[in-house]
């Protein structure tokens, strides 16, 4: 295999490959992480601690409740992660080429991460809204529940009830949160991989696991305040007079700050970190395995 001549792929595949790989690895990771994500949303909606939420969900709604919104979660990865990981690889490849093949400084990786996050979030915002709505539905009073069957049913109902543009409700905080998360996640991952591999001499598996854990922490710390605001905006319901509790992201942020102080934005941080870090780790591990497999078959 080693002395076999490698034919460089031509056509559209080299361009779409990072997008396909990114989406596939994100979807595989989501299948494992979905229950933790579900618990995180319930904690943010004020239903108690991780243990209380889990016990109540299984007792009242059954084990299947932990996977409510999986179709929306997979759709979100198919759009958001496909776009952000694909964009990040394209952007960093172009930047490395412009840098004469030398590794990029951290600030350039951060800029690529910010840009990739904005692109991914703009594409993935409708699926993200459907996911939040589906996960929050069981927490609403019976009369206010929307009873979405799956992600596509949720999207079609949102369009028919609220109009097409409502699919991007909360898109502002979603994009900002994604920029913060991807700056933390993508830049720190690439930087840590270089450090572990080149300076510490670690093997492939240890490098991927270690770098993923570091990037998961930075992604969580950078993005949770934005995630909290985004969740509050997306799940808000009008009162009897048709008035919403928040007029926008800044209003939500200021009211939250006034009511609970800065730490209120970090509600559910341990669970959020436990959810983000393994998802990041599994996304990178799956991506690593997909790339190895493609290499083995010269794809």
Give a written overview of the molecule.
- With 299 residues, the chain is mainly α.
- Helices cover 73% and strands 0% of the residues.
- Helix 3 packs antiparallel against helix 4 (106-136), helix 4 (106-136) packs across helix 5 (151-162) and helix 6 packs antiparallel against helix 7 (204-235).
- The radius of gyration is 20 Å and the shape is globular.
- The two termini are 14 Å apart.
Secondary-structure map:
Layout: H1 13-44, H2 50-61, H3 70-98, H4 106-136, H5 151-162, H6 171-199, H7 204-235, H8 249-260, H9 269-296
Rg computed from alpha carbons, rounded to a whole number of angstroms: 20 Å
What is the general shape?
globular
Number-wise, the strands total 0
How much of the residues is beta strand, in percent? Answer: under 5%
> Please, what is the oligomeric state?
single chain
Q: What is the averaged pLDDT score?
A: 87
Determine the structural class based on helices, strands and strand pairing.
mainly alpha
Largest sheet: none
Distance between the termini: 14 Å
User: In terms of per-residue confidence, which ranges show pLDDT below 50 for 5 or more consecutive residues?
Assistant: none
Helical content stands at over 70%
Question: What string, H for helix and E for strand, traces the elements in order?
Answer: HHHHHHHHH
Tell me the number of helical segments per DSSP (H or I, 4 or more residues long). Answer: 9
């Amino acid at each position: 295999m080693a002395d076999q001549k490698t034919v460089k792929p031509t056509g559209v595949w080299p361009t779409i490959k990072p997008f396909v790989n990114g989406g596939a690895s994100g979807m595989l990771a989501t299948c494992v992480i979905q229950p933790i994500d579900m618990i995180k949303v319930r904690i943010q909606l004020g239903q108690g601690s991780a243990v209380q939420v889990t016990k109540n969900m299984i007792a009242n709604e059954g084990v299947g409740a932990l996977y409510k919104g999986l179709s929306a979660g997979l759709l979100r990865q198919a759009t958001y992660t496909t776009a952000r990981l694909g964009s990040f690889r394209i952007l960093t490849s172009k930047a490395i080429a412009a840098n004469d093949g030398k590794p990029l400084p951290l600030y350039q990786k951060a800029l690529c991460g910010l840009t990739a996050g904005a692109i991914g979030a703009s594409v993935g915002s409708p699926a993200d809204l459907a996911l939040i709505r589906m996960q929050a539905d069981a927490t609403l009073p019976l009369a206010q529940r929307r009873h979405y069957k799956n992600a596509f049913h949720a999207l079609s109902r949102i369009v028919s009830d609220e109009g097409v543009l409502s699919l991007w409700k909360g898109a502002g905080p979603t994009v900002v949160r994604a920029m913060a998360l991807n700056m933390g996640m993508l830049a720190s991952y690439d930087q840590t991989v270089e450090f572990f591999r080149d300076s510490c001499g670690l093997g492939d598996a240890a490098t991927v696991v270690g770098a993923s854990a570091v990037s998961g922490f930075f992604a969580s710390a950078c993005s949770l305040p934005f995630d909290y605001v985004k969740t509050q905006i997306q799940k808000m319901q009008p009162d009897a007079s048709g008035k919403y509790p928040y007029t926008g992201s800044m209003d939500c942020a200021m009211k939250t700050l006034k009511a609970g102080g800065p730490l209120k934005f970090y509600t559910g941080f341990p669970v959020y970190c436990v959810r983000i870090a393994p998802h990041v780790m599994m996304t990178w591990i799956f991506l690593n395995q997909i790339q190895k497999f493609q290499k083995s078959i010269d794809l």
